[in-house]
Amino acid sequence: MSEYHLLINGTLVAGDNTMPVVNPANETLLATCPRASEAQLNAAVAAAKAAFPAWSATSIDERKRVVNAIADVIQANAAELAQLLTQEQGKPIGDATGEIYGTAAFFRYFTSLDLPIEVLDDSPGRRVEAHRKPLGVVGAIVPWNFPMILMAFKVPPALIAGNTIVLKPAPTTPLTTLRLGELIRDLLPAGVLNIITDANDLGAALTAHPDVRKVSFTGSTATGSKVMAGAAGLLKRITLELGGNDAGIVLDDVDPAVTAPKLFQSAFQNSGQVCIAMKRLYVHESIYDEMCEALAKIAEQTIVGDGLQQGTQLGPLQNKMQFERVQELLDDARQHGNVIAGGTTLDQPGYFIRPTIVRDITDGTRLVDEEQFGPVLPVIKYSDPEDAVARANASPWGLGGSVWSGDTERAYALAEKLEAGTVWINKHAELDPTLPFGGAKQSGIGTELGQEGLREFTQLKVINMAR
Ligand code: NAD
User: What percent of the chain has pLDDT over 70?
Assistant: First the structure.
């Protein structure tokens, strides 16, 4: 069994405690992982604080060189990292490989950006410039569904902007992050990037630490709200990427046979454990039966199993808590709708739930109103598209949404009315590092990715000079 270490001040160290990491595909012990104590958290923050003056004084080109070098290492070790990611997270190896290469690509993308000084006024009376200064120590907190790519929303822009970092992966998926830390530690000056792990018990201390200037958090809305409260005392900068309950609205003019596979992929990739997965599907009554049948057929044909096995299309739920929660929502949904595909676990160890289609269900039920974050899709019938939009918007969340139609003008008119950070037309959940990404309503605060995602790791400073 491999050994894993925390990364504190450029040194690989054992945790003051340990914790088990379980493979969700067979429920066996994958590794014993270090678990940091609060003293180690404090040491990591102190190291990041000490490293900040020198790192923020390096040129942006030097910082980009380092970020590119990290991307090289990720790519060179993609096979090993992908294997580990599948073992701890559960996703099929092809998807894990995609996530690792995507991570390298996200690192590289940020090296194409700059933070130039903007001249706001250059007149006879004055010269005014806008500068973008690094903030200091950034706390980066990541969930368990995409441990690598979500880390890549935060680490490269934070580094390029000149900040130092304490990174904390989720307790059930820490290994790929720790292994990456080991691979890249010599590329960075000591203390610039520190990695600690916890058992869901250090997030609050990291958030409230007086030497942490910004918290970049991805996770559930409930925890995001705690992060906001924890950051309030010292008015820290926060970026919150939180939960969602994305609606897809299918108009009456699509061909179910052509659209169903795209809808299925939008809802079920990563076994539905995607913040921007399609989590409820509104289908026009004229094609409702046909669409339900087409989706059920795909669900029945989908191969569910260990992500390391060739041919697997969907892996397990990532952890036992989520496995139990999705089953609870499914049990409730049986009282309010008809399960026409899936609805079962696999008769073997592992947190597997077959892709499940629930029809004849509607708003006001738990499966429709809550974020299931698993492979169970409610399909809801509607007759008036305006009413479908109103129902889609009647949610505390507003991460993403989509409209599907053969007539893009019709789709566009409805897309304009959806309350969400991103609305797609005839697709869903496309993620691209060049496009800003953020949530409306309780799906988040602030923006990641794109130029705006880089700026979020800076403080705007105006220099106003008389002449
Ligand atoms: P979670 O909120 O339980 O945990 C996320 C991270 O927060 C973990 O690292 C956890 O250890 C840490 N944490 C726990 N308590 C904390 C505290 N009090 N203060 C600070 N940090 C704390 O979320 P999860 O269950 O790991 O992830 C699933 C959720 O994440 C879903 O709701 C999903 O929609 C959301 N998500 C959102 C995005 C997005 O970009 N909007 C992306 C992926 C996942």
Answer: 100
Q: Is the CB of 298 under 6 A from ligand 1?
A: no
Task: Select from 223, 320, 372 the residue to mutate for testing ligand 1; criterion: most ligand atoms less than 8 Å from CB.
Answer: 223
C-alpha to C-alpha distance for 466 and 141, rounded to whole angstroms: 43
Query: Can you give the pTM of this predicted structure?
Result: 0.97
pLDDT in tens, 266-283: 999 999 999 999 999 999
DSSP-derived letter for residue 419 is: -
Assess contact for 251 and 284: CB atoms under 8 A.
Answer: yes
Question: In the chain, what percentage of residues exceed pLDDT 90?
Answer: 100
Distances in Å between the Cα of 327 and the Cα atoms of 317, 323, 337, 350 are 11, 6, 15, 14
Residues 6+ apart with CB under 8 A from 222: none
Report the candidate in 91, 41, 135 with the shortest Cα–Cα distance to residue 375.
Answer: 91
* C-alpha dihedral (288, 290, 295, 301), degrees to nearest 10: 160
Cα(32)–Cα(46) distance, integer angstroms: 26
pLDDT digits (tens, 9 = 90+) for 421-434: 999 999 999 999 99
Order the strands of the 280-284 sheet from edge to edge: 338-341, 356-359, 376-382, 280-284, 247-250, 400-404, 422-425
Question: Which residue among 144, 220, 317, 437 is best mutated to probe the pocket of ligand 1, counting the most ligand atoms within 8 A of its Cβ?
Answer: 220
Query: 242 CA to middle of ligand 1, Å?
Result: 7
Nearest partner of 249 among 367, 368, 391, judged by Cα: 391
Distance 216 CA to ligand 1 centre (A): 11
275 assigned to active site = yes
Show the domains of the chain with their CATH numbers.
6-242+443-466 (3.40.605.10), 247-432 (3.40.309.10)
Q: What is the DSSP letter of 285?
A: G
Helix, strand or coil, per DSSP, at residue 463:
strand
| 14 C-alpha to ligand 1 centroid (Å) | 25
Identified catalytic residue from 88, 275, 371, 456:
275
> Is 292 labeled as catalytic in the residue annotation?
no
DSSP state of 397: E
Separation of alpha carbons 54 and 346, rounded Å: 54
The best mutation among 99, 141, 397, 437 to test binding of ligand 1, ranked by most ligand atoms within 8 Å of the C-beta, falls on 141
For the CA of 230, the closest atom of ligand 1 is 19
